[in-house]
Amino acid sequence: MVQILAKNAILVRKAILSDTKFIKEATVVVNNAYRSEGGWTTEKDIVSGLRCTEEDMATFINENGKPNTLLLAFEQVGNTETVVGTVQIQPSEEHPKEAEVGLFSVSPTHQSCGIGGKLIRAAMEEMKTLGFDYATMHVLENRPEILTWYKKLGFTETGERIPFVWPEMLKVKNLHFLTLKKPLES
């Protein structure tokens, strides 16, 4: 894997309608982060299929804020913006003061450069602005390196273990998610 050091400016912002021009690029970032050979976040040996389609991404951008909020990370080089990461805030239907961190991805060529932390911090700030008190996330139980990374950001395990939402996509059978939670400090 070739790693690009983030020497250029990284901007994280809410997706807007004009970002539809980045649908393909953002979809590639998500799928490469989850399903490619490169990067330490890959699930290619655990889960099959795409993590996100271009149709999904078009919906996320066109319906941003209704109810999910998509944030995009851009690397800026001169006047050119390139999508290098995504995160989506997904309000909980069961717990009105909680929102889930979802669709969190950083391009494998940009991982370990601080972009993931920047995306998570931006998502936490946006969650507070939206009135949430807690951030939650679901992490595959067989990913100790990812669990450790989220714990460094202040997430703790709740003890809840839930089935994988698309069991037909699992290459490792009977795999579950662990629920992590973090209070959003004001």
Give a verbal description of the structure.
The chain is an alpha+beta fold. The chain has 4 helices and 7 strands, in the order E-H-H-E-E-E-H-E-H-E-E. It has helices spanning 23-35, 54-62, 115-129, 144-152; strands spanning 9-14, 69-77, 80-91, 98-106, 134-140, 156-163, 176-183. Strands 1-2-3-4-5-7-6 form a 7-stranded mixed beta sheet. A hairpin with a 2-residue loop joins strand 2 (69-77) and strand 3. Helix 1 (23-35) packs across helix 2 (54-62). The protein is globular. The model is unreliable at 1-6 (pLDDT under 50).
Radius of gyration: 16 Å
Give the oligomeric state of the chains in this entry, treating copies of one chain as homo and distinct chains as hetero: single chain
The tally of beta strands, per DSSP, is 7
Query: In one word, what is the shape?
Result: globular
Largest sheet, strands/sense/barrel: 7 strands, mixed
Please give the order of strands in the largest beta sheet: 1-2-3-4-5-7-6
Mean pLDDT, nearest integer? 91
